[in-house]
Amino acid sequence: MLLGIILWNVGALAGATAILAGAGSGVPWLESPPGLLLGMGGAYALVAGPLLAACRRSAGAGLYPSAWWAAAALLALPWSAVFAAAGCVAAPLRGVMQGAIQGWFAGNLLLGWFGALAAAAVFYLLPRFTSGETPAGRLLRIAFGAQFALAGFVGFGRLWGGPYPAWVSSLGAAAQWLWLPTALWLGASWRRAAHGSGRAARAGAALQCALAAATAFLLHAALLGAAGLAWVRRLIRFTWAEPGMDSLMILGAFGSAALGLCLFALPRLWERDWPSLGRLRRIAQAFLAGAALTAAGQIGAGFVQGAAWADPRLDSIAAAGRAAPLLAAAALGWLLLGGAAAGTTAAVLALVRRGRSAPAADAPELIWEETLP
Question: Which of 23, 82, 252, 353 is the most exposed place for a label (fewest CB within 10 A)?
Answer without folding.
Answer: 353
